[in-house]
Amino acid sequence: MVFKLVSCDGGGIRGYLTCLILQGLHEETGCLDTADGFAGTSTGGLMAVALADGRTQGKDMAKLIADLAAHYRDDADTIFRENERNFLDKALDDLLRRFHLGGGPGITASQYNATGLEEIGLSLVEDRTIGSLSTDMVLAVNTTCLHRSDKIGWAPFTITNQNLEHESWLDMSAVRLLDVALASSAAPSYFPPHQIKAGGKDYGYFADGGTFANNPVMNGINVAIATNRAHGLEDVEALSIGTGQQPTDISEEMVKNPDDWGLLKWFGITSNAPRGALIELLLNTSAENQYWMARLVLKDRLVRINPPLPKVVGLATHKPESYTLMDKAYQASKQSTYWANAVKMMRGWARN
């Protein structure tokens, strides 16, 4: 039997583009009803949680993915709710905005609080837990544990509903699905670290899984094989969906004096680099690196759709132009060979 994986990258508001792609592919292939597992990081983690829960709850998956797209489009102000910070941070942020440098990561505090994102998450999965998910459906969501133990320190972590190891710390069946989504989405300087407590245990604070694997496809494959849902790589087929290739770089002209490049320049505050360039650099290159590793081992059994965006759409940029750019990127992707390959692969899923 083929293990059929849907993997969703991180990318903030650009998760809207992921939703459009999933919506279109589901209309053609019914892939959200036939997938065996959902892997996600950050905004993709929210999607993976909602989709795995939707399958378990017997929801109409076409309606669910349409509702997710609507949240990204209509509720962005709620998702990215400004943090009420101290006077110094507010004054600094106002000064940066005067020079058109707003809308990026916070400097002295997280730019946004997580209350709005929590509201959206509750509307999707309520207070259901990891243990409520059907074990027939694999969930794999990346997040970074900021203190695994005194011996280990911080550690990359993939939260799953599958039994990976017989260790009490890893039994997260009592953890709310909402907490999984918030932990995976806690992008440093954008959202605060998220604490997970459940079943009398304090698992500590977590940060965005994009800090180590913004594309979670390899983590999803790992969980499938480690739990014998797939006996080997030859049993896995995967669809990997990005949040759009960004025309972002730091040119030689921008660098000028490399010795001057401290955090302020890397964050685009005292340089012409894009605001939050360091975060975008880590997320985007991490995602592509994971893709090429997965491509090496799965070959044609992996299809990735990650259409180019003609202009930069920031992680939290939700102006009308941003949605227009993503709509156009989606329409262009439907004409690509990647789309045709994805449709061909996933039509086979219904027969396996």
TrEMBL record:
The active site is at 42 (nucleophile), 208 (proton acceptor). InterPro entries: Acyl_Trfase/lysoPLipase, PNPLA_dom, Teg/CotR/CapV-like. CDD domains: Pat17_PNPLA8_PNPLA9_like. One of its GO terms (biological process) is lipid catabolic process. Signal peptide: none annotated. One of its GO terms (molecular function) is hydrolase activity. It is an enzyme of class 3 (hydrolase). Transmembrane segments: none annotated. Residues 6-221 form the PNPLA domain. This is Putative sporulation hydrolase CotR. It comes from Ruegeria meonggei. The gene is cotR.
